[in-house]
Task: structure prediction
Amino acid sequence: MQTTLDTTVAFEGKGLHTGALASAVVRPAPADHGIIFRRTDVTVQADVPALWNHVIVSPLNTRIENAAGTTVSTIEHIMAALAGCGIHNALVEVSGPEVPILDGSAAEFVLGFLRAGIRRLSSPLRVIEVRKPVSVQLGDAHATLTPADTLHIDFEIDFADRAIGHQEKTLNMSNGAFVRELCDSRTFCRSADVDAMRARGLALGGTLENAVVVDGSAVLSPGGLRHSDEAVRHKMLDALGDLYTAGAPIVGRYTGHKAGHAVTNALLRALFEDPDAWGWAEADAATAARLPGVGVRMSDLPAVA
Result:
Protein backbone atom coordinates (compact mmCIF):
# COMPACT_ATOMS: atom_id res chain seq x y z
CA MET A 1 0.00 0.00 0.00
CA GLN A 2 1.02 3.64 -0.35
CA THR A 3 2.60 5.37 2.64
CA THR A 4 3.14 8.78 4.16
CA LEU A 5 4.67 10.18 7.33
CA ASP A 6 2.83 9.68 10.59
CA THR A 7 3.71 13.16 11.89
CA THR A 8 5.39 16.33 10.64
CA VAL A 9 9.17 16.68 10.87
CA ALA A 10 11.32 19.78 10.35
CA PHE A 11 14.94 20.35 9.28
CA GLU A 12 17.00 23.55 9.36
CA GLY A 13 20.37 24.53 7.96
CA LYS A 14 22.17 26.38 5.18
CA GLY A 15 21.66 25.87 1.49
CA LEU A 16 24.77 24.33 -0.06
CA HIS A 17 24.84 26.70 -3.03
CA THR A 18 22.96 29.80 -1.84
CA GLY A 19 24.54 29.82 1.63
CA ALA A 20 21.21 31.10 2.98
CA LEU A 21 19.53 29.71 6.07
CA ALA A 22 16.65 27.46 5.10
CA SER A 23 14.08 25.15 6.63
CA ALA A 24 12.29 22.13 5.21
CA VAL A 25 9.10 21.04 6.98
CA VAL A 26 7.89 17.65 5.73
CA ARG A 27 4.21 16.98 6.31
CA PRO A 28 2.01 13.88 5.83
CA ALA A 29 -0.01 13.84 2.60
CA PRO A 30 -2.92 11.74 1.29
CA ALA A 31 -2.70 8.88 -1.19
CA ASP A 32 -1.84 9.79 -4.79
CA HIS A 33 -0.45 13.16 -3.66
CA GLY A 34 3.13 12.18 -4.47
CA ILE A 35 6.05 14.35 -3.40
CA ILE A 36 5.37 18.08 -3.77
CA PHE A 37 7.60 20.95 -2.67
CA ARG A 38 5.96 24.19 -1.52
CA ARG A 39 7.85 27.48 -1.25
CA THR A 40 6.50 29.21 1.86
CA ASP A 41 8.12 32.50 0.80
CA VAL A 42 6.10 32.56 -2.43
CA THR A 43 2.46 33.68 -2.38
CA VAL A 44 1.32 32.60 -5.85
CA GLN A 45 1.85 29.19 -7.48
CA ALA A 46 4.18 28.05 -4.74
CA ASP A 47 3.84 24.28 -5.33
CA VAL A 48 6.43 22.46 -7.43
CA PRO A 49 5.95 18.72 -8.12
CA ALA A 50 9.09 16.63 -7.68
CA LEU A 51 8.78 15.10 -11.14
CA TRP A 52 11.25 14.45 -13.94
CA ASN A 53 9.46 16.78 -16.36
CA HIS A 54 9.82 19.66 -13.86
CA VAL A 55 13.60 19.19 -13.56
CA ILE A 56 15.63 21.92 -15.26
CA VAL A 57 19.30 21.75 -16.11
CA SER A 58 21.41 23.18 -13.31
CA PRO A 59 25.04 22.54 -12.34
CA LEU A 60 25.86 20.25 -9.45
CA ASN A 61 22.34 19.70 -8.10
CA THR A 62 18.76 18.84 -9.01
CA ARG A 63 16.41 21.80 -9.44
CA ILE A 64 12.68 21.65 -10.12
CA GLU A 65 10.49 24.43 -11.52
CA ASN A 66 6.77 24.98 -12.04
CA ALA A 67 5.04 26.83 -14.88
CA ALA A 68 5.23 30.13 -12.99
CA GLY A 69 9.01 29.89 -12.66
CA THR A 70 9.04 28.97 -8.96
CA THR A 71 12.07 26.77 -8.28
CA VAL A 72 13.40 24.53 -5.53
CA SER A 73 17.04 23.42 -5.67
CA THR A 74 19.16 20.63 -4.22
CA ILE A 75 16.24 18.25 -3.69
CA GLU A 76 18.24 15.09 -4.41
CA HIS A 77 19.25 14.17 -0.83
CA ILE A 78 15.79 14.56 0.71
CA MET A 79 14.31 12.73 -2.29
CA ALA A 80 16.77 9.88 -1.73
CA ALA A 81 15.74 9.72 1.93
CA LEU A 82 12.05 9.62 1.00
CA ALA A 83 12.69 6.87 -1.55
CA GLY A 84 15.01 4.94 0.75
CA CYS A 85 12.48 5.04 3.60
CA GLY A 86 9.63 3.98 1.32
CA ILE A 87 7.62 7.22 1.70
CA HIS A 88 5.38 7.79 -1.31
CA ASN A 89 3.40 10.90 -0.35
CA ALA A 90 4.64 14.05 1.39
CA LEU A 91 4.39 17.84 1.28
CA VAL A 92 7.80 19.48 1.70
CA GLU A 93 7.49 23.12 2.75
CA VAL A 94 10.72 25.00 2.02
CA SER A 95 11.36 28.51 3.32
CA GLY A 96 13.45 29.56 0.33
CA PRO A 97 14.86 28.44 -3.00
CA GLU A 98 17.05 25.62 -1.68
CA VAL A 99 16.67 22.62 0.62
CA PRO A 100 19.15 22.73 3.56
CA ILE A 101 22.25 20.63 2.99
CA LEU A 102 22.61 19.50 6.65
CA ASP A 103 25.76 17.34 6.82
CA GLY A 104 25.93 16.76 3.05
CA SER A 105 24.35 13.30 3.20
CA ALA A 106 20.79 12.00 3.64
CA ALA A 107 21.31 10.58 7.14
CA GLU A 108 19.64 13.40 9.07
CA PHE A 109 16.62 13.27 6.78
CA VAL A 110 16.35 9.51 7.30
CA LEU A 111 16.63 9.91 11.08
CA GLY A 112 13.88 12.52 11.08
CA PHE A 113 11.58 10.37 8.96
CA LEU A 114 12.07 7.27 11.08
CA ARG A 115 11.43 9.25 14.26
CA ALA A 116 8.26 10.76 12.74
CA GLY A 117 7.03 7.30 11.78
CA ILE A 118 5.72 5.96 8.49
CA ARG A 119 2.00 5.30 8.07
CA ARG A 120 0.37 2.95 5.58
CA LEU A 121 -2.54 4.37 3.60
CA SER A 122 -5.55 2.55 2.23
CA SER A 123 -4.68 2.94 -1.48
CA PRO A 124 -2.60 0.42 -3.45
CA LEU A 125 0.88 1.32 -4.61
CA ARG A 126 1.80 1.35 -8.29
CA VAL A 127 5.36 0.95 -9.48
CA ILE A 128 7.11 1.75 -12.74
CA GLU A 129 8.44 -1.39 -14.43
CA VAL A 130 11.36 -1.07 -16.83
CA ARG A 131 10.41 -3.37 -19.74
CA LYS A 132 13.29 -2.90 -22.18
CA PRO A 133 16.75 -1.31 -22.02
CA VAL A 134 17.09 2.46 -22.37
CA SER A 135 20.42 4.29 -22.47
CA VAL A 136 21.71 7.86 -22.70
CA GLN A 137 25.18 9.36 -23.05
CA LEU A 138 26.40 12.90 -22.37
CA GLY A 139 30.09 13.25 -23.17
CA ASP A 140 31.98 10.47 -21.37
CA ALA A 141 29.11 9.92 -18.92
CA HIS A 142 26.39 7.40 -19.60
CA ALA A 143 23.56 5.57 -17.85
CA THR A 144 21.20 2.69 -18.62
CA LEU A 145 17.96 1.29 -17.26
CA THR A 146 17.28 -2.41 -17.87
CA PRO A 147 14.55 -4.79 -16.66
CA ALA A 148 15.02 -6.39 -13.22
CA ASP A 149 12.84 -7.79 -10.46
CA THR A 150 13.72 -5.00 -8.01
CA LEU A 151 15.70 -1.77 -8.00
CA HIS A 152 19.44 -2.31 -8.41
CA ILE A 153 21.99 0.49 -8.71
CA ASP A 154 25.41 -0.09 -10.28
CA PHE A 155 27.79 2.87 -10.37
CA GLU A 156 31.33 3.58 -11.51
CA ILE A 157 33.37 6.77 -11.10
CA ASP A 158 36.92 7.75 -11.99
CA PHE A 159 38.67 10.86 -10.65
CA ALA A 160 42.26 11.97 -11.00
CA ASP A 161 42.53 12.77 -7.29
CA ARG A 162 43.99 9.73 -5.53
CA ALA A 163 41.69 10.29 -2.54
CA ILE A 164 38.85 9.21 -4.85
CA GLY A 165 40.37 7.51 -7.89
CA HIS A 166 38.43 4.68 -9.52
CA GLN A 167 35.48 3.33 -7.52
CA GLU A 168 32.59 1.07 -8.39
CA LYS A 169 29.77 -0.46 -6.39
CA THR A 170 26.66 -2.59 -6.99
CA LEU A 171 23.75 -2.66 -4.60
CA ASN A 172 20.35 -4.32 -4.46
CA MET A 173 18.24 -1.57 -2.92
CA SER A 174 15.84 -3.94 -1.13
CA ASN A 175 15.43 -4.43 2.62
CA GLY A 176 16.80 -1.14 3.90
CA ALA A 177 20.03 -1.25 1.89
CA PHE A 178 19.89 2.50 1.25
CA VAL A 179 19.70 3.31 4.96
CA ARG A 180 22.45 0.87 5.93
CA GLU A 181 24.85 1.38 3.03
CA LEU A 182 24.36 4.78 1.41
CA CYS A 183 22.46 7.35 3.45
CA ASP A 184 25.45 8.67 5.45
CA SER A 185 27.71 9.24 2.42
CA ARG A 186 28.37 12.94 1.84
CA THR A 187 28.61 15.11 -1.22
CA PHE A 188 32.20 15.71 -2.31
CA CYS A 189 34.32 18.03 -4.39
CA ARG A 190 37.91 18.76 -5.35
CA SER A 191 39.65 21.60 -3.52
CA ALA A 192 40.81 22.95 -6.88
CA ASP A 193 37.17 23.41 -7.97
CA VAL A 194 35.92 25.34 -4.92
CA ASP A 195 37.02 28.82 -6.06
CA ALA A 196 35.64 28.23 -9.55
CA MET A 197 32.27 27.15 -8.15
CA ARG A 198 32.04 30.19 -5.86
CA ALA A 199 32.91 32.48 -8.75
CA ARG A 200 29.82 31.09 -10.48
CA GLY A 201 27.66 31.70 -7.40
CA LEU A 202 27.72 28.06 -6.32
CA ALA A 203 28.83 26.28 -3.13
CA LEU A 204 28.43 29.50 -1.11
CA GLY A 205 27.22 27.44 1.86
CA GLY A 206 29.76 24.66 1.46
CA THR A 207 32.11 23.88 4.35
CA LEU A 208 34.44 21.08 5.36
CA GLU A 209 31.63 19.90 7.66
CA ASN A 210 28.94 19.49 4.99
CA ALA A 211 31.06 18.19 2.11
CA VAL A 212 34.05 15.94 1.64
CA VAL A 213 36.79 18.08 0.11
CA VAL A 214 39.79 16.33 -1.42
CA ASP A 215 43.12 17.59 -2.70
CA GLY A 216 45.13 14.95 -4.51
CA SER A 217 45.57 12.10 -2.05
CA ALA A 218 44.47 14.19 0.96
CA VAL A 219 40.99 14.38 2.49
CA LEU A 220 40.68 17.88 3.96
CA SER A 221 37.41 17.37 5.83
CA PRO A 222 37.81 16.70 9.58
CA GLY A 223 37.54 13.03 10.46
CA GLY A 224 38.31 11.87 6.93
CA LEU A 225 36.01 9.51 5.07
CA ARG A 226 33.05 7.63 6.50
CA HIS A 227 33.65 4.85 3.95
CA SER A 228 36.70 4.18 1.82
CA ASP A 229 34.38 4.40 -1.20
CA GLU A 230 32.21 7.23 0.15
CA ALA A 231 32.31 9.09 -3.16
CA VAL A 232 30.70 6.35 -5.26
CA ARG A 233 28.20 5.67 -2.48
CA HIS A 234 27.16 9.32 -2.60
CA LYS A 235 26.75 9.17 -6.37
CA MET A 236 24.42 6.20 -5.84
CA LEU A 237 22.52 8.20 -3.21
CA ASP A 238 22.09 11.02 -5.73
CA ALA A 239 20.94 8.56 -8.38
CA LEU A 240 18.25 7.14 -6.10
CA GLY A 241 16.96 10.63 -5.32
CA ASP A 242 16.92 11.61 -8.99
CA LEU A 243 15.23 8.36 -10.02
CA TYR A 244 12.47 9.09 -7.50
CA THR A 245 11.41 12.04 -9.65
CA ALA A 246 9.86 9.34 -11.86
CA GLY A 247 6.83 9.77 -9.59
CA ALA A 248 6.82 6.24 -8.17
CA PRO A 249 9.31 3.52 -7.24
CA ILE A 250 11.17 2.14 -10.25
CA VAL A 251 11.61 -1.61 -10.66
CA GLY A 252 14.68 -2.05 -12.82
CA ARG A 253 18.48 -1.89 -12.87
CA TYR A 254 20.19 1.49 -13.11
CA THR A 255 23.78 1.46 -14.33
CA GLY A 256 25.74 4.72 -14.25
CA HIS A 257 29.25 5.53 -15.45
CA LYS A 258 30.45 9.00 -14.41
CA ALA A 259 26.77 9.93 -14.43
CA GLY A 260 25.37 12.98 -12.68
CA HIS A 261 22.02 14.67 -12.21
CA ALA A 262 21.69 15.73 -15.86
CA VAL A 263 22.41 12.23 -17.14
CA THR A 264 19.87 10.58 -14.83
CA ASN A 265 17.20 13.09 -15.80
CA ALA A 266 17.97 12.54 -19.49
CA LEU A 267 17.60 8.81 -18.86
CA LEU A 268 14.15 9.26 -17.31
CA ARG A 269 13.09 11.43 -20.24
CA ALA A 270 14.26 8.74 -22.67
CA LEU A 271 12.40 6.08 -20.67
CA PHE A 272 9.09 7.92 -20.69
CA GLU A 273 9.42 8.91 -24.35
CA ASP A 274 9.28 5.21 -25.30
CA PRO A 275 5.94 3.64 -24.33
CA ASP A 276 7.36 0.17 -24.92
CA ALA A 277 10.18 0.72 -22.42
CA TRP A 278 8.06 1.05 -19.29
CA GLY A 279 4.66 0.42 -17.77
CA TRP A 280 2.65 0.76 -14.59
CA ALA A 281 2.10 -2.25 -12.36
CA GLU A 282 0.28 -2.59 -9.07
CA ALA A 283 2.75 -3.72 -6.42
CA ASP A 284 1.78 -7.21 -5.32
CA ALA A 285 3.11 -8.58 -2.05
CA ALA A 286 6.27 -10.05 -3.62
CA THR A 287 7.15 -6.85 -5.49
CA ALA A 288 6.37 -4.63 -2.51
CA ALA A 289 8.61 -6.70 -0.25
CA ARG A 290 11.59 -5.92 -2.51
CA LEU A 291 11.13 -2.15 -2.69
CA PRO A 292 13.51 0.31 -0.97
CA GLY A 293 12.37 1.19 2.52
CA VAL A 294 10.42 -1.97 3.27
CA GLY A 295 11.46 -3.30 6.65
CA VAL A 296 13.69 -0.34 7.53
CA ARG A 297 14.47 -0.13 11.24
CA MET A 298 16.08 2.58 13.32
CA SER A 299 18.93 0.15 14.02
CA ASP A 300 19.78 0.17 10.28
CA LEU A 301 20.82 3.82 10.51
CA PRO A 302 24.59 4.41 10.73
CA ALA A 303 25.82 5.85 14.03
CA VAL A 304 26.82 9.14 12.38
CA ALA A 305 23.15 10.20 12.28
About this structure: Residues 10 and 148 are 35 Å apart (CA to CA).
